[in-house]
Design brief:
The complex is a heterodimer of chains A (325) and B (376).
Chain A: E1 4-6, H1 7-21, E2 25-29, H2 45-49, E3 54-56, H3 61-73, E4 77-81, H4 92-106, E5 113-118, H5 133-137, E6 143-145, H6 150-162, E7 167-172, E8 180-182, E9 196-199, E10 204-208, H7 211-225, E11 230-234, E12 237-239, H8 243-253, E13 256-263, H9 268-279, E14 289-293, H10 302-308, H11 312-323
Parallel strand pairs in A: 2-3, 2-4, 4-5, 5-7, 6-7, 10-11, 10-13, 13-14
Antiparallel strand pairs in A: 1-8, 6-12, 9-11
Helix pairs in contact in A: 1-6, 3-4, 7-11, 8-9
Chain B: H1 12-17, H2 28-53, H3 68-75, E1 83-85, H4 91-97, H5 101-108, H6 143-157, E2 163-168, H7 175-186, E3 191-197, E4 200-201, E5 204-205, H8 218-222, E6 225-230, H9 234-249, E7 255-260, H10 278-287, H11 290-302, H12 306-329, H13 358-363
Helix pairs in contact in B: 2-3, 2-4, 2-11, 2-12, 3-4, 3-9, 5-12, 6-7
The chains are: A alpha/beta (325), B alpha/beta (376).
Amino acid sequence: MTVERTYLEAIRDAMAEEMARDENVFIMGEDIGAFGGAFKVTDGLQAQFGESRVIDTPISEAGIVGAAAGAAHMGMRPIVELQFIDFISCAYDMLTNYVATARYRAFLPCPMVVRGPSGGYVRGGPFHSQNPEAAFLHTPGLKIVYPSTAADAKGLMKAAIRDEDCVLFFEHKYLYRRVKEVMPEGDHVVPIGKARIAREGTDVSIITYAATVWRALEAAEQLAAEGISVEVLDLRSLLPMDDEAIQATVRKTNRLLIVHEDTRTGGIAGEITARVSETCFEWLDAPILRVTAADVPLPYSPPLEDYVLPQTSDIVRAVRRLVAY
Amino acid sequence: MARAGTSPARSKATSVAKSSRPSDALSREQRLSLYRYMRLTRVLEERLVALYRQTKVVGGLFRSLGQEADAVGSAFALEQRDVLSPLIRNLGAMLVKGATPLEVLRQYMAKGDSPTRGRELNIHFGDTEKRNFIGQISHLGDMVPVMAGVTLSFKMRGEDRVGLVYIGDGATSTGAFHEGINFAGVQRCPLVVIVENNGYAYSTPTHKQTAAKQFVDKAIGYGIAGVQADGNDVLAVYDVTKEAVDRARRGEGVTLVELMTYRRKGHAEHDNQSYQPPSEIEKWALENDPIDRFVKVLREQHQVTDEEFASIEAEIVALIDTATDEAEASPMPEPTDALVGVYADPAVIPPLWFRESVRSAVDSNERPASWGTYDG
């Protein structure tokens, strides 16, 4: 197959292949059946697998996530679609208190995927643009992935469905139809917890994930013209985080910029900074810098959103500052 | 307080049951078994109180005094393959499902060989392998969506199994209750939701919990069957639950069962019940104790003798005595077991660098002595 698949199609393909492979896999969510979901990620799946495996639900994020947990205890492998990941907060209690603790406190398996369109750059305003991953990074028992490429989206979705624990699968809606590629052949599974070098370089490392991987690559291209060699590490998985890859790139370039689209305070960049300072202090030639969103709810109007979210020029500026040390 | 201990059940199914009750089919032996489970619940809790006062129980202690009939009578209506989701006052239901006094005692003493290996408190434990009950969490209401999913899986697989979930009067106010029961209703899941109305959520009386006249009315809003019964009449509890279970098994969906009862002890053992009129507690104890009431039935209708009661009592006390000795002799957990099993993969979380030799650190008293009764 040499047909290119978009990020969105790759996610759909992964779910369809897993549903065909394992009859315990099923999907629940709002408007996902005949309608195919707000973004059409599940388009055609109900026709293929029937109403009992692609279930339209009431508007009940806590209810759906809780029901997924119960079904998972009984040996099913539910996938929950949240119409926008912003609504994951409605299921926060269920995820953090019930799902995340089930294996530890009660030896109850909870193999389930909670997925949904995430992120900004789409003029979605405060409630259709969020990146709430950091809120869950702090919860032992959950896993979090956030792919940037179509192939990773497919491979990580397959890994998430097969994982024995709950995986929060963040899909960047800006990337849904903007990135595409020819899928690797065969049963393409990307292991959870492994980062990917998106671009090799020697002078500065940028650690990032999701849509800002593409911003970082753009910046790296511009900086190459100035003679600055930038390495871009795409984390892909946030929990567990690939410490080995993080340490390797820092020890290679000795300068680190962390970029994420989420807000700054309490964001994942802070966690990475702490890990690097604990393990790579002697290798650093400059302070660790962060390019993130400003600490505000994400505004809607283009000039406002563009001002708040990290842009390629911000990354270029930060890298220049790092090499100046 | 308008405590409708004998409110008539509201569903057609139950009014039909007046002439022929499911409990009519219970043998004398099964009736004695109901009695035994209620006594076992009460004696076990009394033993736990004694251990609590000796500071052998770690943490709080929760009683179901006066509510034994609703836990026992309802769980008795399930088959072994059916899944039960108990709450803190449903020790009796767990015992019916096969939980043992030894497990309960080890749990309350935070032992390493307790069902949760010391990870969880009191009766927060379960067994989905054989006995089919699921451990609750403290966030009330959450078990309703979970049981909606458990029973959804039965429906999807065409399994002949039913789920039963308990919720207190207080937790009917949570969003999780609403979302779970609504979803289960829409999906026609084989689920029985028992609202145990014991008059108080911690210190909050029912009239501050809801403007509804009775919880059973909520069934109308969800388009599901609703029935109400005297929760202190173990046979009435069995009857309404059995009918609801049968309905679920026939594919007729969810039933909300409201059981009217009364919480005679505080929320937990530390609670002095200052908010409950003493006369109210006394009245329920004297006039409406579920075990006393059932003893009367057993004596008058089934000619159960003093000897028979005494023999059941002796068996229960011996069982609990043995279990107490065994639980007291059980080891506390190994501290490093705390890092095992957060995930299937990785199976163990690596120790933090300053805990890498935690055992020796504890031994050399680098760690401050723990609070409570735990002394390493």
